[in-house]
Amino acid sequence: MTPITGLDLTGFTEYEPGAWEESSGVALSVHFFPVVPDLPAPLHELERLRAGLAQVAAGVGGGLVEAAPGTVDGLPAVRQLVKVPLGARSGQAFIGSLTVPRATCSTVVKVQAAEGGTTGLREAVIMAEVGPDAYFRAHPYGDGELGGLPSHVADDEEWDARFPDHPLTLVRATLRRIAPTVTLDDGFKALPPFGGPVPPQPVPQTPPQPPKRGWFRRRGA
User: What CATH number is attached to the domain comprising 76?
Assistant: First the structure.
């Protein structure tokens, strides 16, 4: 169960509750998390939000392609695109998400697709055109080296039209198409807004206790 009451699923077939797939290989799912959102900053602090999200993606070996603020059914939201390695086999998967955070919970629409067959073609073609020096770049949201997958120009939206069947193109296009069609439950919309992550609470210190006398006493004590 999620607070999402509607979205355009044209072309998708449900394969389990809350999850659908398209013939192109794009998968879509909806989620609800009844806890304070784990976003690293409030949505209006965009620079800090992006930097934190980039660190999270790099921390799991991936890379944040882009993060942008927006709205879903009138509520503040953040759109993310992340790339992750496929692990045992070569290639990458691309995950797009729309996160709608409230003070104590959030709902997410996730879209994902993975490379199959020949991998790395988009990257190879663009690197050959622009050259290695112009291809790789410092992460636009990071301060220095983040680790994870490198940032490069082949992930930019300007190349999508050249590679219409690439998973990044498909995920980005699906996310943009779906976002305006999402409707949310009125009760969820009425919840207090997300104000930022909850700071860690200090662990209460137990005052030292005097040692207890044991059951055994020496004779004469």
Answer: 3.40.1000
In a domain? residue 130: yes
Beta strands 63-72 and 27-33: pairing type? Answer: unpaired
Domain that includes residue 10, residue range: 4-189
Distance between CA atoms of residues 80 and 135, nearest Å: 22
**Contact yes or no for 189/75 (Cβ under 8 A):** yes
Buried-state track 12-23, b at ≥16 Cβ within 10 A, e below 16: beeeeeeebbbe
Query: H helices within 112-195, ranges in order?
Result: 121-130, 132-135, 167-178, 186-189
Task: Round to whole Å and give the CA distance between 177 and 167.
Answer: 15
pLDDT digits (tens, 9 = 90+) for 122-163: 999 999 999 999 999 999 897 666 789 999 999 999 999 999
